[in-house]
Amino acid sequence: MDAVTSPKQGTDDSRQRIAALEEVARRALDLCRARGASQAEVSCSEEQGLNVGVRLGEVETVEATRDRGVALTVYFGQRKGSASTADLREDSLVATVEQACAIARYTEDDPAAGLADPALMATTLREFDSWHPWALDADEAVEIALACEQAGRDADPRIDNSDGASVGSGAAVSVYANSHGFVGSSRETHHSVGCALIAGEGEAMQRDGWYTFALSRADLQAPVTVGREAARRALARLDPRPVPTGTMPVLFSAEMARSLVGHLLGAVSGGALYRRASFLLDSLGEQLFPDWFAIHEQPFLPRGLRSSSFDAEGVATRESALVDGGVLQRYVLGSYSARKLGLGTTGNAGGVHNLELAANAGDLASMLRDMGRGLLVTELMGQGVNSVTGDYSRGAAGFWVENGVIVHAVDGITIAGNLREMFRNIQAVGSEWDPRSHIRTGPILLQRMTVAGAE
């Protein structure tokens, strides 16, 4: 079977490709049944992409990718075996099924193993405007990357070097099917343009960048805009100065605010909970945030980066609150982790689908004014987060704010706290959210954190 055809090579045949993958999935399930499996599931995918990179006006990389694969899992009662292949020919499919069955026969029973409940399978399947192929060839991609980098380098004479610019475009089709009779498919494109620049000289050099990412080319920022924004951000970081060590308000930019939501998701995910490796054990129904705070999952957003009618097990997704009134409403569970915890799946096998945080503040400028004096964090470094205790300590860079105005850049500092306390101390969520992530949040202002300034 051929890989996904690029739009440049001919007409869009994504639906035909999906139909072919559905046939592969059905054949794999038939083979599993014939070998005595009591349950089985299979995922098939094909994807293609083009990525180019340039630096200082010269082409550095041109990479075209074409991948495909089948991953399947069989169950013999509550014994499980999995195998995968990139070869979709019949003999390879047979060998892969036999390998999975052999593995299952030698594993121990797992009471939580098995497909999700058949009554939970999605019955309404639809698309979410996520398919926007770009007929991009290498020459055009290089031209775009060069224009992006040049716009940044021309923005200011203090931009003396570059880490390069990149352009990427990809398309993927996939099918999930299981022995309950469920068959679901998806198709998605993704495109990006990015640039990283270096400002200043010698030990005073500073690096920063910018990128745009979307499912549709029409939603990307112009390459020149990306390059100029990369230059602005690099220049803004010049001449960093120390800040006092102490406890103060900290405002996470929208890009950095996503990481706080990520720590929450990690703590309330089924795997961490049943392994008892979470600082939010037994926190269901607990007030973790201020009473105005809310996070809602919205899996049906048009052009949403994680929109889907079903999760990785075929379970129907649904709009629901993760946090409402500051109270944790549910965990994030697939069927396996739900069984381990004695609960029901939340339709989140494979992750969450488009989270949106309720805003109670305006744009970044207004949040800076409201903060008055404190630290704006625009970069985080290191992995100093303890998922069991919630202790938080990370390197950071950003800007010092006085009287609601940015006065100078800051780097080489550490911000610290405990995530439970940090969640309770959220003072505001801004309305200016970053569209490059499935976590839709504006900047987040914490009333206080410990900041260790550079010596």
From TrEMBL:
<dbReference type="InterPro" id="IPR047657">
    <property type="entry name" value="PmbA"/>
</dbReference>
<dbReference type="Pfam" id="PF19290">
    <property type="entry name" value="PmbA_TldD_2nd"/>
</dbReference>
<keyword id="KW-0482">Metalloprotease</keyword>
<dbReference type="InterPro" id="IPR035068">
    <property type="entry name" value="TldD/PmbA_N"/>
</dbReference>
<dbReference type="Pfam" id="PF01523">
    <property type="entry name" value="PmbA_TldD_1st"/>
</dbReference>
<dbReference type="GO" id="GO:0008237">
    <property type="term" value="F:metallopeptidase activity"/>
</dbReference>
<dbReference type="GO" id="GO:0005829">
    <property type="term" value="C:cytosol"/>
</dbReference>
<dbReference type="Pfam" id="PF19289">
    <property type="entry name" value="PmbA_TldD_3rd"/>
</dbReference>
<dbReference type="GO" id="GO:0006508">
    <property type="term" value="P:proteolysis"/>
</dbReference>
<dbReference type="InterPro" id="IPR045569">
    <property type="entry name" value="Metalloprtase-TldD/E_C"/>
</dbReference>
<keyword id="KW-0645">Protease</keyword>
<feature type="domain" description="Metalloprotease TldD/E C-terminal">
    <location>
        <begin position="245"/>
        <end position="453"/>
    </location>
</feature>
<feature type="domain" description="Metalloprotease TldD/E N-terminal">
    <location>
        <begin position="40"/>
        <end position="104"/>
    </location>
</feature>
<keyword id="KW-0378">Hydrolase</keyword>
<dbReference type="InterPro" id="IPR045570">
    <property type="entry name" value="Metalloprtase-TldD/E_cen_dom"/>
</dbReference>
<protein>
    <submittedName>
        <fullName>Metalloprotease PmbA</fullName>
    </submittedName>
</protein>
<comment type="similarity">
    <text>Belongs to the peptidase U62 family.</text>
</comment>
<dbReference type="InterPro" id="IPR036059">
    <property type="entry name" value="TldD/PmbA_sf"/>
</dbReference>
<dbReference type="InterPro" id="IPR002510">
    <property type="entry name" value="Metalloprtase-TldD/E_N"/>
</dbReference>
<feature type="domain" description="Metalloprotease TldD/E central">
    <location>
        <begin position="132"/>
        <end position="238"/>
    </location>
</feature>
